[in-house]
Amino acid sequence: MRRRRPRSPKRSIAAAAVLAGMAAVLLHGYLGAARATSGTGGPQATVVVAAGPIPRGAVLAESQLLLASMPQAYMPPGSIDAIAKAAGRVVLAGLAPHEVVTEARLARVRAGPVASLVPRGLRAFAVPTSLPSGAVVPGDRVDVVATYASGQPHSEVTAEGIEVLFVLGPSAGGNAGGGLGLDAEAAGAEAATTLILLVSSEQEERLAFARAFANLEVAIDPPE
Length: 224
Prior knowledge:
Distance between the termini: 100 Å
Structural class: alpha+beta
Number of strands: 7
Shape: elongated
Number of domains: 2
Radius of gyration: 32 Å
Strand content: 25-35%
Number of helices: 2
């Protein structure tokens, strides 16, 4: 039987060195990719965030917004990537500091500060009152009471449980428009405070009739 010639130790060592080098290169590449993705969520993207707390109904100014980087994997749907795309639009829900600004949180382009917050099927109706400053804030609910002085004097509840959308006048912190550019006098604010209420079309008709022939006041409902 013919004996196999033993391999040269030098060849084995060289082959092992080549394989070890290839393994090191592959391991280095794998670890580099792992470091790039671990803890960062992968590729980064630019998003617009709130520079500070922004209340519902505010018209966004560029000074209220910042650009930030975050992993694409963690971006909320509808994220905005440029301040110019968000500035000038109305906030539909309040934003916390450094919260990502999304399309779902903003009103459509060129929507006014009141119209943008009125849900479909409802209307915004202004009711002047004699409430003291700070007695009502947006989100409170009130009953509207009409007092008729002519004919047979009486009072009746014209609308119940109506949500307050905006407060115009001194109760808005000394700013007649509550920081929204609204003109209280143009809204008929002859009293100390004017409330912008969310009403149905039927309630709108009753309130308009009562406002023409009666004195309107509001009663504040307790919280739910």
